[in-house]
Amino acid sequence: MSFRFASCAAAIGALALSACSPQPGEAGEINLFTARHYASDQAVYAAFTEETGIRVNVLEAPADQLIERLRAEGARSQADVVITVDAGRLWRAEQAGLFQPAPELAGVLENVPDNLRHPEGHWFGFASRVRVVVFSRERADGSQITDFLDLADESWRGRLCVRSSNNVYNQSLLAGLIDAAGAERAEAWAAGIAANMARAPQGGDTDQIRAVAAGECDAAIVNHYYLARLQRSGDSADRAVADAVDMAFPSLAGQGSPFNVSGAGLAANAPNRENAIAFLTFLLSETGQRQFAELTNEFPVIEGAAYDNEVLDSYPEILAVPVNVNVLGENAPAAQRMFDRVGWP
């Protein structure tokens, strides 16, 4: 059964992956395996097809399922491009052998900051996001949130909302802190956050923001674009939630703000290599970079990329942690062990 443009994404589930298996690729198409779940990405695929004439066959699934499927298929896989979110997952995919070098991209990758791409070019970030703290305008003081380490202080006891420790965003945050502050301070921070939780971890990043607005906690750790989405929503209730909170861009142990990426790479056995290279190049083009900033509220990775997004424009200048994001994956196993030791659910 061949899979159709965007048709499989909505149907994918833990037991449904095999139902959308593509047949060997044909000229004029690529098979895109993606863990991104944003409906607005369809506009990116459509723009690529309009510009190149190359059809994009999309298979969407949760990242861990996608990685496991591609690992199991091995040389039989028909994937041309693999996309996932968070450097921790990109590291897992690279460790599983899901990518291959793409020397054809050497020129365009020079425009991507070194810290936002694999050191050997196996994958690259095409859009970035920053881990931030959303806090109540009424019950918290943003001037007291200059560093993530601040949130482990006893003054925050019973006041924080945060996702579970098995969430890759939190794993990468702690992995980055291990690099920035050392293992001992990182584990002490994780223990402090666990002690300061206002409730057991539940829900996604948007749920944490809603909890702050509802008074269930005074601050929450989230990715920036979840608040931006509420701020730009056409739903007045969403905007009311956004109006009840503010956002801080704390440093990570004084090293800069913790950035992460949505990333892509050439699949290890891509049957449509030339078309795949064209698609990967498009992600870094002016059109591609604009789409991500305007549709998903992520930051472009290409410096100076033009876009129209008043919320992103309202942010202060943000200095990123200089370490390569691949380190977030390398340190993720140690981070998970720390979470387990300190009792972060």
Automatic annotation (TrEMBL):
Q: Which family does it belong to?
A: Belongs to the bacterial solute-binding protein 1 family.
Signal peptide range in chain numbering = none
- Which controlled-vocabulary keywords does the entry list? Iron, Metal-binding, Signal
Q: Which GO terms describe its cellular component?
A: outer membrane-bounded periplasmic space
Name of this chain's protein: Extracellular solute-binding protein
Binding-site positions, Fe cation: H37, Y225, Y226
* One Gene Ontology MF term: metal ion binding
- Superkingdom: Bacteria
Q: Which organism is it from?
A: Alkalicaulis satelles
**SUPFAM superfamilies found in the cross-reference section:** Periplasmic binding protein-like II
- One matching Pfam family: SBP_bac_8
